[in-house]
Amino acid sequence: MDELPISKAFTLLEPGPVVLVTTHDGRRDNVMTISWTMVLDFSASFALTTGPWNYSFAALQRTKECVIAIPTVDMIDTVVGIGTCSGKDTDKFAKFGLVREKAGHVRAPLIGQCLAHIECRVVDFIERYGVVVLEGVAAYMDAGRRERRMIHAIGDGSFVVDGRRIDRREMMRSKLPDGL
């Protein structure tokens, strides 16, 4: 085996799909790309990493709500583009032609082009690690959308795309907690 610099170890543990997180700060909508997300348990609890370096962070702190929008591989250039400019001086919805859709429980919008959405409330900030803990309050899936492959960031500017799904639900059924 070849040694990998410890500073690159994070690229071995790809967390979850790249997501777009929408916010509304009381005046306008914004969207940011987040490449580190995590499911916290078998309920609708999630975490993402961000901090004061992201313009949307202030809106998350103030409003304590957002939408996690899940893009698919056909949106890769939009996702990267959103992540390489700031909402401080750019209307990302206009620049990237994003379709705003009204959320049911939060002021942040859904994004019409995305496969799925989770409306969330912020329940904790873990400042030391830049972690925002979220509780989902509603979720939506575009069942008619043909493209469903999600994007996963490696952390070095490259990405992996979901592939073939392998079903082992029956094999695991007796091992999972009741109700799953």
UniProtKB/TrEMBL annotation:
Molecular-function GO terms, alphabetical: FMN binding; oxidoreductase activity, acting on the CH-NH group of donors, NAD or NADP as acceptor
Entry keyword Flavoprotein: yes
Alphabetized SUPFAM superfamilies for the sequence: FMN-binding split barrel (SSF50475)
InterPro entries per record: Flavin_Rdtase-like_dom, Flavoredoxin, Split_barrel_FMN-bd
Assigned protein family: Belongs to the flavoredoxin family.
SMART domains associated with the record: Flavin_Reduct (SM00903)
Boundaries of every Flavin reductase like domain copy: 12-149
A Pfam family reported for this protein in Swiss-Prot or TrEMBL: Flavin_Reduct
Cofactors (names): FMN
Coiled-coil segments: none
Name of the protein this chain belongs to: Flavin reductase (DIM6/NTAB) family NADH-FMN oxidoreductase RutF
Keyword annotations from UniProtKB, A to Z: Flavoprotein
